[in-house]
Amino acid sequence: MIDPHGRVMMVSGANRGIGAALARRFHADGWAVSLGARNLDQLRESVQEWVDENVSCHHYDAFEPATGTEWVESTVDSRGRVDGLTNNAGIGHMEDLSDLSEELLDEMWAVNVKGPLRLIQETLPQLAVSGEGRIVNVVSLSGKRVKGTFAPGYAMSKHAMLALHHAVRHASFEHGIRVTAICPGYVETDMTSSFGVDPEIMIKAADLAETVATIVRLPNTATVAEILMTCEPEVLG
Ligand SMILES: NC(=O)c1ccc[n+]([C@@H]2O[C@H](COP(=O)([O-])OP(=O)(O)OC[C@H]3O[C@@H](n4cnc5c(N)ncnc54)[C@H](OP(=O)(O)O)[C@@H]3O)[C@@H](O)[C@H]2O)c1
User: Fold this and answer.
1) For the chain, which domains are there?
2) Max CA pair span of the chain
């Protein structure tokens, strides 16, 4: 297994939900974590229980491309390397087909697809340096299938993100970069709080983080391209 000590993992949307759980878990494993969020105060508050010299907080807003560039540059300036990138930041507009506006679609495209693409492009040269770079794309089961009439625009954006994921997987393999998509069903976070589904039955963000933290430590010879994780008895794949 790869030893994370001395390696740097970037996590977007690290201030709450799945991103916060991933950031905390990576850090516990020994990664130095470079965290990006829209609201720096909220991000700093979310890490205050465990912050140390291996944590840095940065402004990242997918609607403002320059913030991504600055985040990558300041990570390289301060840590001297980037070994991992976790594209977690995402939004879900759950409108049905008749209410799905182009504006809502554009927002999801910007945050769920274009933001990750830019961060990947800007970190790839750094990720290639060690020959053991890692990318995690937090997609969704909505990137694998369309669940009846549920959230078609979100599913469109996550299908696009999964296409990006596989494109990057192929393009970066020869540089030793291994790319994993985590595709969960319901996870108990703010995003699912209005779904009317019992939070008790939902995936816990800490369990998802535990899984991802193990996968990114696997050697280059054992790559996991997609993790499908669900709390329901639906057929996957
Ligand atoms: N919860 C689920 O059931 C579930 C299932 C499958 C996949 N996912 C995916 O998991 C990821 C995290 O979701 P979550 O459940 O943790 O949701 P969440 O609690 O709503 O958190 C979303 C995160 O994305 C950030 N974000 C939103 N818009 C952004 C922007 N323009 N620029 C930068 N960051 C932005 C949010 O920042 P702010 O705090 O500033 O809004 C927040 O940190 C998303 O990609 C989501 O699609 C979630």
Assistant:
1) 8-229 (3.40.50.720)
2) 50
